[in-house]
Amino acid sequence: MKTVKKNETFISIFILSLGVIVVFGKFLLPGNEMVLSKGMEDLATYYAWSRKFGFEELVKGHLALWNPYLFCGMPFLGNLQAALLYPLNWFFTFFSLPMAINFFIALHTFLMGFFTYLWVRKLSLSFLSSLLAGLMMMFGAAFF
User: Fold this and answer.
1) HEC string of the chain?
2) pLDDT of residue 43
3) pLDDT of the residue at 4
4) How far apart are CA 71 and CA 117, in angstroms?
């Protein structure tokens, strides 16, 4: 098995980050209120408001166990879609809702490309083919 060189890893991080910035840059600027979503899809109609409710309660010092606003009330913390305990969701406590959603999407896109790069590199493929695999995974139709 081939070892991954540190300078190649830094170059790949730079190139993959640059790809994310080129695609998502205008959505990641402070003060932007646009959200990376189609209107009336799951992100806009459920996930965003679920995150808003859960993390607003956390900021107030409450752990939201129950969501009284959906149907006649339903469990919130136990609902997998709430994802309150997922560490990367904690951006919702520090940023505005649109900024946190956009950053969350951009970060996961980068992580998808970077981990694909590392995996393909460990399969003993060349640096360029590993980088291309990461970019294709990030911006390919199956993920993007």
Assistant:
1) CCCCCHHHHHHHHHHHHHHHHHHHHHHCCCCCCCCCCCCCCHHHHHHHHHHHHHHHHHHHCCCCCEECCCCCCEECCCCCCCCCCCHHHHHHHCCCHHHHHHHHHHHHHHHHHHHHHHHHHHCCCCHHHHHHHHHHHHHCCCCC
2) 81
3) 62
4) 43
Q: How far apart are CA 104 and CA 89, in angstroms?
A: 7
C-alpha to C-alpha distance for 49 and 17, rounded to whole angstroms: 28
Q: What is the pTM of this model?
A: 0.85
Least confident of 22-31, 34-43, 63-72, 75-84: 34-43
What is the widest separation between alpha-carbon atoms in the chain? 56
Average pLDDT, the chain: 89
Residue with the two structure tokens 């990367």: 88
Contact between 133 and 117 under an 8 Å Cβ cutoff? The reply is yes
